[in-house]
Amino acid sequence: MLGKSPLADAAEQLWEELPAHRVEILNGSMSVTQPPDGPHQESLTWLIEKFFRAGARQAGLRYVQGIGLWLPTGPDDYAVPDFSVVHADYREALVEKNCYAPHVFRLVLEVTSSYWTYDTATKADVYARANIPVYLIADRRHDQVLLYTDPKDGKYPDPQHFKRGQSVPVPESVGITLDLSVDTLLDGDD
Predict the structure, then answer these.
(1) Helix, strand or coil for residue 99?
(2) SS3 190
(3) How many CA atoms within 13 Å lie on the side-chain side of 65?
(4) Which of 37, 115, 135, 140 is the most exposed place for a label (fewest CB within 10 A)?
(5) Is 118's pLDDT higher than 80?
(6) How far apart (Å, rounded) are the C-alpha atoms in residues 23 and 78?
(7) How far apart are CA 72 and CA 93, in angstroms?
(8) What is the reported pLDDT for 148?
(9) What confidence score (pLDDT) does residue 62 get?
(10) Radius of gyration of the chain from Cα atoms?
């Protein structure tokens, strides 16, 4: 569990020393990312509005930003997705240090920043191994949105690619019907 190893201790120290930075441990390696830019945060605010209007709460879901996702890839591994859709009772799945068990996550979304390969490669791997049903990446570096679904044996099939001018359909497995604008996911405004 977190806090029982030198790596976990170092992560906890960085949490305290670098407010607003994101500290994660994936595959036994620590990553620290700087605070997000304005368009990144606008995308997340827009998502909250979209999921609210789609009736996510009435469907037994919650949508949250920046909560910990406990990962089965190592004893101290956890991620902090930008945006998550979780079961309404997710609080009962608290593991430790504000991290929740993966089975309550229906969808996770990352908006890329300077560490775009981390979101497009490393996180795709660990989220598949955690059996997260839907993983969306707003890949601002390549001006596209990637949709990973239905992991099997710890791997996602090749993602669907969506370009500007298109909408990404949220898979039915999430529990609501909703289309998301690629342009807004990438730019953060309508």
Answers:
(1) strand
(2) coil
(3) 14
(4) 37
(5) no
(6) 9
(7) 14
(8) 98
(9) 97
(10) 16
Cβ-Cβ contacts under 8 Å for 177 (sequence gap 6 or more)? 54, 170
Which tokens hold the place of 88?
């309404």
Of the candidates 152, 145, 70, the one whose C-alpha atom is nearest the C-alpha of residue 109 is: 145
In the numeric block, the tokens 């359909």 are attached to: 169
Backbone angles phi, psi at 146, to 5 degrees: -110, 135
Select from 15, 123, 121, 23 the least CA-distant residue to 71.
123
What residue type is assigned to position 169 of the chain? P
Tell which wins on pLDDT, 2 or 175: 175
Q: Pick the residue with more confidence: 7 or 52?
A: 52
Separation CA 154–CA 128 (nearest Å): 5
With beta carbons less than 8 A apart as the criterion, state whether 60 and 96 touch: no
Integer Cα distance of 186 and 190 in angstroms: 10
